[in-house]
Amino acid sequence: MCQVTEFTSIDCGGTSNYTDPNTRLAWISDNGVIRHGNPVEVENPDENLPQYQRRRDFPIDNKKYCYTLSTDERRRYLVRATFLYGSSVEQDTYPKFQLYLDATKWSTVTVLDASRVYIKEMIIRAPSQSIDVCLCCATTGSPFISTLELRPLNLSMYATDFEDEFYLEVAARVNFGALTKEAIRYPDDPYDRIWDSDLDKRQNYLVGEAPGTERINTMKNIDTNTREYPPIKVMQTAVEGTKGTISYRLNLEDFPANARAYAYFAEIEDLGVNETRKFRMEQPYIPDYSNAVVNIAENANGSYTLYEPSYMNVTLNFVLSFAFVKTRDSTRGPLLNAIEISKYVEIGPKTEGQDGKTPILVCLLFNQSFSPCKAYKFIIVPV
């Protein structure tokens, strides 16, 4: 399991170091050590989220503005960048710009709602002892960033057959049957993944719910000691298709694409002696998987134990419709605790110019007593 002292948490544009009152994680400010970009106070921020009080804006020019984060070569990490524009001035042009990880185009950040926190996550196996997270190429507005986070993962987590050629860009991570609209993350998830609540209703997100879908939960402990270690709190809730079907529809940003998909199941009800719960995935139809019958208690070797089938490489559309349907001999409807979908992003080769870039700010090493990160520096290079 990772240690909190290995977490990197940077408040971009923040004024001081602090401990987040919600997660108890230590954050550092880039204020005073970055000569480029301007800290901007965010209008109408959520006072309970100190890292979103300000953002850092960068110039509109032909340069990449990069944060360099220290990594252990070939270790897997979750890299997360977040963006809250926050301005409500009507004449403001909302920004649209590019986000890069080293030479790999990560995503296009397009702000459509000033009050929304846009979250970009990438799962990587570190190619060297550091990575660069860069902003550039604005077509409207100025590039900006609110936070930058680096979270080390357990050795077994998110391994693929293609990780030397592809990163995994997280497209969806959903907690079904959630008790509140709040996302689950650290400390409930020791790796600080963000599990969105299925109660967080927004446009084109988890629509088309099947009739008879009911929410169930348990306080019993769930054995999640498998490859991906989803948090127990996520596995303690689920949705059940009491009329025989679970179905949803959601949009996947930057799709169609090849993806790695995970389904997380745990039987969290005490079934009677003559009760069974068997079902198949009918949508999307994937020949090697759709014909397989899921019997959670049997697949997981007991109730209250995680079963996590994964789909190593599937092609998914921008609009994902999925459905689980009970078999004819099943007495109970299908059950779903969580899903996770990530897009394969081809790793771009580093150029000679990137390998030889010169840092314009010294590398900062932090005392382990505070230890929000091992090290980071800030650089600027031509695009």
Automatic annotation (TrEMBL):
Topology within the bilayer: Single-pass membrane protein
One family name in Pfam for this protein: Malectin_like
InterPro entries documented for this protein: Malectin-like_Carb-bd_dom (IPR024788)
Tree of life domain: Eukaryota
Localization, UniProt: Membrane
Main location group: membrane
Segments forming domain Malectin-like: 10-343
Any one GO cellular component localisation term in the record: membrane
Name assigned to this protein: Malectin-like domain-containing protein
Organism: Ilex paraguariensis
